[in-house]
């Protein structure tokens, strides 16, 4: 039975997990661990966690969830595995999976680790960003499931099912390659759109009256946390550079069509891309 | 008094205007004109318009709203002005303002035209996309207001105020330059994101299970109508090419930072762009 859950990193993802676990499993005790005492106190006051804890307490854990920036996860995970009992499971929720799987591939407690990535989130961060039901109907990608002890993965998957997630299984290399396209590139696209518009318009503040909901939704991800995203781009460097090269080539081609007055070509580019409607219908 | 309003183009914008006018001004009769008989019949069945009409009927109009693609508007506007009475007003709602103002600058009925751009919309199109209250709290940019007869503009502005719009006045050149950044670039950014991801992933359909709400909102505008957007990019070619050059340069710089392992630089780019939060708060 999972009784004591320790959430390391009580921000958007860790905090939202804590809220849902407390809601769905009233008997469970949720402990919070965070570098920031402010965040820990906030999480306690907001009722996100039941109690504050430290890394030294992890020998009491049935489940540890690692919800911190991916570079910190890679550093911390081996030490956490050293601390926990043979009957505990550590699951991480990071947006890259190759490096974290590699760092523990020869760890004696590799079977006590589950590499996963719940595809859920918002552009906000910190304990105040924690919301209920964030994981309802969301995909949770699990990597190298065969390397995790069956009884431990079963307990964890049951819990995540209760939170509304559906599981998909994938190897870490495929995960990191595809997530670069469907998630990491979207973030860079939004950040650079925000940068471009700010650079042009920052001396004309009221010009933003002209911005409608289209700009707002396209640029939304540019509110995201640099502390979380920098290590993701670092760990997934090769794939992210590939996606950026494709994206820049497509933008350059579109610009050339406009410059050459090939507006039939411009029309066809957009017409073909309208296919995204079917794809997005599939997501919903 | 505005009694007979003729909406040319009963799609997303024209249809939504018709719905709100019928709601706020029950005494007004709303006529619909459209190249597509299907769309006209749909608009009638959906209660978007009161009655079908043709261009020959425009001598009965108190107000004509031109809500068709911007290239068609530029062609049609002079003929409409030729048809209407001295007491009628024609307002267009297009996303570019330089060409339409130029085509009627020497027209004897220039004072019967109001160039405007309500900054509102969704990614959908056609009469079925028409929704109530689309213009609530939205900005309506009016260009060359001094060239429109005062009594006519006053009547129109009263009506648009009733629909929830706030008016802003701007010259056509400034409008087209700034709107390229805050609207046209967002659309190209989304279309090319959609294209890049589709090209990479189209043979692996279930990969889109990995796409979360972040991808969905960033790519949303790639559902937009090519028939509407192609002439916008054509009319605003110089400004759109400028914005694309800036955007591509920023993306290329970001890619170079990653390639050079300058992750402090990557962090700072995102940190600086987080300033978009304050800007978006100002919009809401």
Automatic annotation (TrEMBL), chains A, B:
One of its GO terms (biological process) is tyrosine biosynthetic process. PROSITE patterns: PDH_ADH. One of its GO terms (molecular function) is prephenate dehydrogenase (NAD+) activity. This is Prephenate dehydrogenase. SUPFAM superfamilies: 6-phosphogluconate dehydrogenase C-terminal domain-like, NAD(P)-binding Rossmann-fold domains. The keyword Oxidoreductase applies. Keywords: Oxidoreductase. InterPro entries: 6-PGluconate_DH-like_C_sf, NAD(P)-bd_dom_sf, PDH_C, PDH_N, Preph/Arog_dehydrog, Prephen_DH. Residues 3-284 form the Prephenate/arogenate dehydrogenase domain. It comes from Olleya aquimaris. The keyword Cell inner membrane does not apply. PANTHER family: PREPHENATE DEHYDROGENASE (PTHR21363), PREPHENATE DEHYDROGENASE [NADP(+)] (PTHR21363:SF0).
């Amino acid at each position: 039975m999972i009784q004591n859950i320790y959430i390391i990193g009580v921000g958007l993802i860790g905090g939202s997990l804590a809220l849902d676990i407390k809601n769905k499993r009233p008997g469970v005790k949720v402990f919070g661990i965070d570098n920031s005492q402010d965040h820990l106190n906030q999480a306690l006051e907001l009722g996100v966690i039941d109690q504050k804890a430290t890394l030294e307490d992890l020998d009491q854990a049935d489940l540890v969830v690692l919800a911190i920036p991916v570079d910190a996860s890679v550093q911390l995970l081996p030490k956490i595995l050293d601390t926990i009992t043979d009957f505990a499971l550590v699951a991480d929720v990071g947006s890259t999976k190759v490096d974290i799987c590699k760092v523990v591939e020869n760890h004696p407690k590799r079977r006590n680790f589950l590499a996963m990535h719940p595809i859920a989130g918002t552009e906000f961060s910190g304990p105040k960003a924690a919301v209920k039901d964030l994981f309802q109907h969301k995909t949770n990608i699990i990597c190298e499931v065969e390397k995790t002890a069956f009884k431990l993965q079963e307990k964890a998957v049951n819990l995540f099912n209760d939170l509304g997630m559906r599981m998909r299984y994938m190897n870490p290399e495929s995960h990191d390659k595809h997530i670069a396209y469907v998630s990491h590139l979207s973030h860079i696209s939004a950040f650079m759109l925000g940068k471009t518009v700010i650079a042009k318009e920052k001396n004309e503040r009221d010009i933003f009256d002209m911005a409608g909901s289209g700009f707002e939704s396209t640029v939304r991800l540019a509110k995201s946390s640099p502390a979380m995203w920098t290590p993701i781009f670092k760990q997934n460097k090769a794939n992210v550079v590939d996606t950026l090269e494709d994206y820049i080539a497509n933008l350059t081609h579109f610009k050339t069509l406009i410059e050459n007055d090939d507006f039939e070509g411009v029309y066809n580019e957009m017409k073909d891309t309208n296919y995204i409607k079917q794809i997005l219908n599939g997501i919903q």
